[in-house]
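Section 4.2 – Deliverable D4.2 (structural model, holo form)

The reporting period included a commitment to supply a predicted holo structure for the target in complex with S-adenosylmethionine. Inputs used:
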Amino acid sequence: MTDSLSHFKQQILNDFNNRKSYENEFHKRAANRLVEVAKLRSNQQVLDVATGTGLVAAAAARIVGDAGRVLATDFAEGMLRQAKQKVAFLGLKNIELASADADEQEFQENQFDVILCSCAIVYFADIPQVLHRWYKALKPGGFIAFSCLAETSPTSSFLFREVVQKYGVAICNPNELLGTQQKCCRMLRSIGFENIEIAIEQFGFYLQDAEAAWNGNANSAFGLQEVHWSQQQLEQCKQEYLDAVKAAASEQDLWNDVTMFFVVGRKPHQ
Ligand SMILES: C[S@@+](CC[C@H](N)C(=O)[O-])C[C@H]1O[C@@H](n2cnc3c(N)ncnc32)[C@H](O)[C@@H]1O
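Output (structure tokens):
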């Protein structure tokens, strides 16, 4: 699979394959909230796309019960390995884990009652196309539930992109396409989804360590890998970022806003 991946996707894959410890309070809280907004019921056929370590899939499997089933997919074998360990440890028999790239994943029509995707839609190369595929894969009356970030979140990354842009480096905002409630609604309606509901939750925190935020942003798949700066240019840009964080901070610290949307859309019955 990896030979044909774009450079950007390969970076994402490497990043997740190399994560030794993934689950933190943020990921657990976001996964639980998604399961909550999805209002799952027993007997449902569920697909969890980009399942990671299976946080959402495991919670969903408990709810849908023995007569239900969860298919959980991800393209990072490292994450799937952790998900397999979790499923075995919990003794869940109604989950199937499979390797799949969400951008390439084909389904039978009218297959699932629910399609879930927590904290991952942002990584897909062609989000509208993926949503179209999910729409077809849903049974009439079925629904999707996914989470995504506001286009201004996290503040630390927003500032990062603003500063590096002054140095001639344009980094696309990964949250731009679905970054407002209006954009989410418009996108889902254009595909045919209805009864769209969006819950908003704040996952922000005081930044505390601006240097770590610089390093995280610079090294991430959405960061500076492709950029060949001299050490001096790098240091200068970094200093400007640290200054921008300081300028945007209150007396206490920079509030790193992390606004998350939990979006639900239904495929009409007919
Ligand atoms: C931030 S994690 C979220 C994992 C899980 N859904 C959760 O909420 O804990 C993002 C996941 O998306 C997966 N991913 C990214 N791009 C993908 C793609 N194109 N196809 C399948 N999985 C993908 C990564 O491997 C990673 O496991």
